[in-house]
Amino acid sequence: MRSWRVWLGLVISIFFIFLALRGQDFGLIWESIKSADYIWLLPAIGLYFLGVGVRAARWDYLLRGVAKISPAQLFPVVTIGYMANNILPLRAGELVRSYALSTRHGVRKSASLATIAVERIFDGLTMLLFFTVASLSIALNSDLRTVFNLAVALFTIITAGVLVFVFAPGTRDRIIGAVLDRLPERVGERVGPMAQAFIDGLSILRRRNEVLGVALASVCAWSLEASMYLLVAEAFGMDISPLGILMVTAVANLATLIPSSPGYVGAFEYGVILVVAGPLGFPRELALSYAVVVHAALYLPVTVLGFIFWWRESLSWGAVREVEKVAG
Fold this sequence. Notes:
Elements: H1 4-21, H2 26-35, H3 41-63, H4 71-87, H5 93-105, H6 109-135, H7 142-167, H8 169-181, H9 185-201, H10 208-235, H11 242-255, H12 267-276, H13 284-312, H14 317-327
Helix pairs in contact: 1-12, 2-13, 3-4, 3-6, 3-10, 3-13, 4-5, 4-13, 5-6, 6-7, 6-9, 6-10, 6-11, 7-8, 10-11, 11-12, 12-13
């Protein structure tokens, strides 16, 4: 909590909570939440965890250049990472996931972090795909056009940087060499092998068939999560088309890229409201009620299961504190 970045995330979350609550009728929000048919949450959460299973299979593809670990073995590690993202600041769950994989399966942290970085690129590109497909039949307002343009710019820059590291070894080596030359010798001796392990983790991008498998797994995993959003909408009696759900899923998850508090509180809700109360035309109170319940369904079950896996794997809470120091 001493890190200025942690406090900045909290301030940003409070700002988005203010935007989400501004002008709302709290009585109508409470009525919407009370009247929802929560039996729909059971299949919705089931679909979400099926999507987590697909993500574990995707990580198996990504790790094949550095280790052979089955999706069944990776599922608890993925769940632990999501749990940590929900309770720790600054997306520290990615570091916790690399720690858990290193502890249980001996994979170098820098190599696993490289595969996680590739995951995030495919996630972002999948959200842009959903956004683009949905926009063919849903008119974008100025706010959504801004979100789309910023996301395109961000992922274009990130993807270009990763591709340079993979397919332009000369440029990559000059960049790494320039960085190492500016570091103290003892630090450079440690960073050099870490950089090489990170490059090894990106090796899947050279294997065309496996890249296609990762892309298809990404679309499948996010389609399952979008189906969860659709079922929760049914709980509120909201008639949202599949294309509308794709746009809600895309914008809500792109909004979580903004630095915020653990669990992306505020940013997620505001992202949902931008679509549901914007081009989809539902009342803001209903949109916020829906966003809160979707967020709770995404947050609580995976956090509880992640804690169970953490306890079962006998991982160290002291290591979590170290991860928090690194993240902060």
